[in-house]
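Contributing: when you submit paired examples, paste them exactly as shown. First protein:
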Amino acid sequence: MNSGNLIPIVLFVCITYAIKAVIDARMRSKLIASNGSSDMIRALVQNEEQQNRYASLRWGIVLTSLAIGFGLIEWFGWDEITPGAVAVLLGATGVGNLAFYSIARNGNATQP
């Protein structure tokens, strides 16, 4: 990939992340300024922490399953993009998402 193409993509991602961070911080400050109960604020912070954990777990499982998919493609010796290679990657992504759903549904992901 040409580095000239990479710069606008990275810039877009950075701007998007900065906007999200500002919106989240503003929401938190308004919540605190509205004199909400400490239990409500604590519950919201714990919920956000749990969602971050779930997001990390999901990406970890999906990326691991994709790595296995890429390993299978290399093992089969597929050097070109073929429907079989795409199917392996899509299947690996699906298996990763299903594994995350199973773990999250059983409640095992909430343990620290």
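Second protein:
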Amino acid sequence: MSVEYVLVEIAGWTGALLILAGYALLTMGRLNGQSALYQAMNVVGAAGFIVNGWYHGAIPSVALNIIWMMIGAVALSRILKRRRTAAAA
């Protein structure tokens, strides 16, 4: 097993754990969809899936996770912008 393979697998499993943990916390009411932490978990988790999927040639998974990551990144950006605006006021 190469170091590259191990790192790709770590990225994939970390991504899976982040997305699952985020969803579990959302479902339990510990986070909400407008939480920066929830959106960051989705962005980083999707990035891990992208790395793993690309390495393994799973292009549909890569495409889905690029879109998933973009949605999370836009939401996170809006949340952080609202925080900056509120802090400045």
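If you have annotations for the second protein, write them as plain sentences, like these:
The longest helix spans residues 59-88.
Residues 39 and 76 are 6 Å apart (CA to CA).
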